Amino acid sequence: MVLFFIGLGLADEKDITVKGLEAVKRCSRIYLEAYTSILLVQKEKLEKFYGKEVIVADREMVESQVDAILHDADKEDVGFLVVGDPFGATTHTDLQLRAKALHIPVRVIHNASIMNAVGTCGLQLYRYGEAVSIVYFTDSWRPDSFYPRILANRQRGLHTLCLLDIKVREPSLESLARGRKVYEPARYMTVNTAIEQLLEIEQDQKQGAYGPGTLCVGVARIGSDTQQIVAGTMAELAEIDFGPPLHSLIIAGETHVIEEEMLAQYRCQPSDRS
Amino acid sequence: MVLFFIGLGLADEKDITVKGLEAVKRCSRIYLEAYTSILLVQKEKLEKFYGKEVIVADREMVESQVDAILHDADKEDVGFLVVGDPFGATTHTDLQLRAKALHIPVRVIHNASIMNAVGTCGLQLYRYGEAVSIVYFTDSWRPDSFYPRILANRQRGLHTLCLLDIKVREPSLESLARGRKVYEPARYMTVNTAIEQLLEIEQDQKQGAYGPGTLCVGVARIGSDTQQIVAGTMAELAEIDFGPPLHSLIIAGETHVIEEEMLAQYRCQPSDRS
Fold first, then answer.
1. Residues of B in contact with A258 (CB under 8 A)
2. What would the mean pLDDT of A44-52 be, rounded to a whole number?
3. Cα–Cα distance measured from residue B119 to residue A4, given in angstroms and rounded to the nearest whole number
4. Structurally, how many domains does chain A consist of?
5. Residue B171 in contact with residue B152, Cβ under 8 Å?
6. B21, B85, B158 ranked by CB distance to A116: nearest
7. In a shared domain, residues A105 and A212
8. Of A204-213, A217-226, B56-65, B236-245, where does mean pLDDT reach its minimum?
């Protein structure tokens, strides 16, 4: 009858909305999209909370088994759970378009995502420019498309939210070359790695988009009880231990008085350093 | 014990998160911030759903009666409800800083806001530049600080989210001049008024930031059952009736194939016109 896209919010099973939970209870099948972000709790905790089974949908499944996901969705309700907000990532557009083509009604239940929850760090949301993604460098590939974007934001005095890479259940390139998929262990980029890569690219590009003295805010596990927010220079934050995932980094643009007051409460102290 | 900032999400009483609702149930006093945004349901519906009284806090109250709001918050839980996400607006920063100065623990419960839910229209969130506010013109004041920002976004091919003015329980300028406050009726800017003002400013500035033929998306009541999303040129959208508040407008930058596929389902038809 309906394909629900249900945002789960940021941290645990109780971040779902009351409306979202009601939709979950109506659904015959529930998929959990588990590759563009992660919730900070295990699937079993969700299943216990919902009182029903949750099918984990990895990238391969969502990209190649759309028909299975949509099977009978014209006769019964199907739920597609997404960490954060359903349209934080572009990944689910295809599923939505396919459902519409099959005349299956689609309903979206929104929730917080890092794109708006980052406002909690004290830098004001309407003063952010374009967001960027920082992906893991490999021996042969150092993607730096973020650089001109950060530069343009900084030239306009705007903050930049850097979304840090997540590698979940992706086959290793080596195994693909051998024709037999072997999955690499999950990896979540830390603030420290992000800063290291950023500074490497600044050294190549030398246009002064930022440097070791640039004010940044590192955030970890936003919305959870163990949330961590630390403001400091890139050099300072490079030494801070932010603990388990997920991490994000904000490169500050020009700051206003009220933003500075907010950041002051999060300024790093020597004791924060690892 | 704790001052909770609780995001209510976008549309109705069931958009609160399970975690947020649990916090509401713990609180001795509940304030509803009612001037930077509005929920699409009445206070009484919230009270019935929560099983307790909700105190509406207008701008004057939040700005002048912080002590009353924080009274005894070191001994009992107090909740401050905000439509959308608590830090979508800058308005609550002061309350948070005051609580911290009094050593009252602050806890934030996030939710969807227009800043991330707008992703549902099909233009991808990471391709938005700086957001702008469009405020009502008066006879003597036509604020146009949005113009260079939209221009800069468009020059970089980025989309611009335009947040439209809300006037709730604000004393009229005339009454302030007479020394006795009279409150004006609430007003919520429509997509139509926003486009009219935007085009007026383009005529003054003539830098080609946008024009009647620029692709835009008008959205109304996002997250509710009556949600409306229409894509079209500024000239086309100026003629569409988007119905009751709240409205927002997105000025598209360069669009990618997948964005165009998403927008195609929302393209305005002649029958949409009022």
1. 90, 93-94
2. 95
3. 16
4. 2
5. no
6. B85
7. no
8. B56-65
pLDDT digits (tens, 9 = 90+) for B244-267: 999 999 999 999 999 999 999 999
Strands B228-233 and B215-220: antiparallel
Which among A39, A34, A31, A45 is positioned nearest to A81, based on CA atoms? A31
CA angle A209, A215, A220 (to 5 degrees): 110
Among A78, A93, A112, identify where a domain stops: A112
Tell me the chain A residues in contact with residue B110 when contact means C-beta distances shorter than 8 Å. 9-10, 15, 112, 116-117, 120, 222-223
| Domain identity same for A138 and A262 | yes
What pLDDT score does A41 carry? Answer: 80
Q: How much is the pLDDT for A72?
A: 86
Q: What percent of chain B has pLDDT over 90?
A: 73
CATH number of the domain enclosing B59: 3.40.1010.10
* Cross-chain CB nearest to B113 (options A84, A94, A116): A116
Place of tokens 């830090």: B87
> Can you tell me the distance from the alpha carbon of B7 to that of A211, in angstroms, rounded to the nearest whole number?
36
- pLDDT digit string, tens, across residues B106-158: 999 999 999 999 999 999 999 999 999 999 999 999 999 999 999 999 999 99
What one-character DSSP code corresponds to residue A62?
Answer: H
Residue A224 belongs to domain with CATH number: 3.30.950.10
Give residue A187's pLDDT: 92
Residues B119 and B98 in one domain: no
Q: Which of A13, A18, A108 lies closest to B16 in CB terms?
A: A18
Q: What tokens does A201 get?
A: 């690219």
Question: Residue with structure tokens 């051998």?
Answer: A178
Evaluate if residue B89 carries a pLDDT over 90. no
| Interface confidence: ipTM more than 0.95 | no
Contacts of residue B112 in chain A, CB cutoff 8 Å? 7, 85, 110-113, 116
Question: Residue A146: how many CB atoms within 10 A of its CB?
Answer: 23
Structural domain harbouring A13: 3-112
